[in-house]
Specification:
This protein has eleven helices and nine strands. It is an alpha/beta fold.
Length: 273
């Protein structure tokens, strides 16, 4: 890795930095993403700019957000003179960017992958492509009853249709991580199951259902610090959604979570009148 040595860069373990260095994998990702001349891409964590350089050659514009000051300086020098790239030295989790992107691309750091994915849901970009830990990829596509099914599965399923495209070996990265990775595609749903304030209630319901894993859904909602429904309110909402209170959150489908959110909304409306 002569570039790393030349610029005195060191992968930061605290930031979960594992650079994708396999040209074969990089080319495969670019072919799948299918960058076009009218794409406005947001890349989270460009690192050494391996994907960035390929996208800049085609896209209308690339916005790359890099938290590491050394990597930011390197990318600023590497892409000097390119008019269709905007580099931002910041933590993506603390940014509020204009919702104008057509694609999100990222080799996600393992330590905060879920936080970034939850943050991405705020944007309406039709396509998201992320390389992340295989275990997390499996969680994203998991269905009810699967031991890896949880809040991440339900929340991303609300906004997207997720697909694991292919596995990425440990040897494709520098430094080599301890686990394998996967490339995941998230296709934004054209119409979300809920809108407005109902989405906020949905998120509270999902958090409540999984905050005490292995609890019945009635107990989880009753005791949740997120929903504050109480046992009577939880029981009424579950009855209205036609969900057995003895079931567990990890067994409920996305449609059932949506129905439960609507029932909780209606109950709140009754309490305010």
């Amino acid at each position: 890795m002569s570039i790393i040595e030349q610029y005195g860069l060191r992968p930061n373990k605290k930031l979960g930095q594992n650079f994708l260095v396999s040209n074969a994998v990089l080319d495969k990702i670019i072919n799948i993403i299918g960058i076009s001349s009218d794409d406005r891409v947001l890349e989270i964590g460009p690192g050494l700019g391996a994907l960035t350089g390929r996208m800049v050659e085609v896209a209308e514009g690339v916005t790359a957000v890099e938290i590491d000051s050394g990597l930011y300086r390197y990318c600023a020098e590497r892409f000097r003179g390119k008019n269709n790239i905007r580099l931002i030295h910041a933590d993506f989790l603390k940014l509020d960017l204009a919702d104008t992107f057509t694609k999100f691309v990222s080799n996600l750091p393992y330590y905060c992958s879920s936080e970034i994915l939850f943050r991405i849901t705020r944007y309406s970009a039709p396509h998201v492509y992320v390389t992340l830990q295989k275990e997390m990829a499996d969680r994203i596509i998991a269905g009810p009853g699967n031991k890896t099914y949880g809040a991440l599965s339900v929340t991303l399923g609300f906004y997207y249709q997720p697909t694991i495209l292919f596995g990425v070996s440990r040897e494709s990265f520098y430094p080599r991580p301890e686990v394998a990775s996967s490339l995941v595609r998230l296709v934004r749903r054209r119409r979300l199951p809920l809108s407005g304030g109902d989405i906020d209630i949905f998120h509270m319901v999902v958090k409540s259902a999984f905050w005490g894993r292995r609890k019945t859904i009635l107990k989880a909602l009753s005791e949740s610090p997120h929903l504050q429904a109480g046992r009577e309110g939880a029981a009424r909402s579950l009855a209205a959604a036609r969900i057995d209170g003895g079931r567990r959150g990890e067994d409920l489908t996305l449609d059932e979570f949506v129905s439960l959110a609507e029932a909780c909304r209606d109950l709140r409306g009754e309490q305010l009148t």
